[in-house]
Amino acid sequence: MAKGRPKKELDSSTESIIKEAARKVFHQKGYAATRTRDIAEEAGLNLALLNYYFKSKEKLFEIITFETLFNFMNTLGIVFHDENSSFEEKIEALATRYIDFLSNEPDIPLFIISAVRNNPENFANKIPIKNMVLQSVFYKQFLEKKERNEISDTNPLQLLLNLMGFIIFPFIAKPIFENVTGTKEKQFQDMMNERKALIPQWVKSMIRP
Known about the structure:
By secondary structure, the protein is mainly alpha-helical. The chain has two domains: 55 residues, Homeodomain-like (Arc Repressor Mutant, subunit A, Orthogonal Bundle), CATH 1.10.10.60; 146 residues, Tetracycline Repressor, domain 2 (Orthogonal Bundle). The chain is 78% helix and 0% strand. It is built from eleven helices and no strands. Helix 1 crosses helix 2, helix 2 crosses helix 3 and helix 5 packs parallel to helix 10. The radius of gyration is 20 Å and the shape is globular. Pfam families: TetR_N.
């Protein structure tokens, strides 16, 4: 222990180290395949210290899942509530931001799906995605466009599902896609970068009146 450093600061630093290690291991292995010993080894700490800060693997997993889901959905919130961008610009921004995010964190989509499906109500209550959409500037712009007959009579939640499917599914299917097609990592990333421009075009075509 470094002499002179406050205990509170050391506690906070150790907790952060454990959480970062847990995030990495849980994202890669999921809950069932992860041992607390794996997290302790990744953090470079002994198992007793990990158990001192976080009493159970279940509790640590719940924390990591919530933080991962919150960070993932935060991008949507930032884009959808932006007062200074148009409806079309929001679609473009969402595609660009999420593709960049998932290119750096490709394990997150499968992690979220497997983590949340066992207790969807718990996370839905903590992160009300429906309200995040229906109370947004994006939704207001959507209704204005529909009123002016500039877009088709589309449910905004259907639009969101299609948009997120265009963005997220390629990263979920990546291992199979690369194996079947022989696509290399750089080729796949080039395709994802192309989708930043293609996705807004596809979405606009779908909602055209």
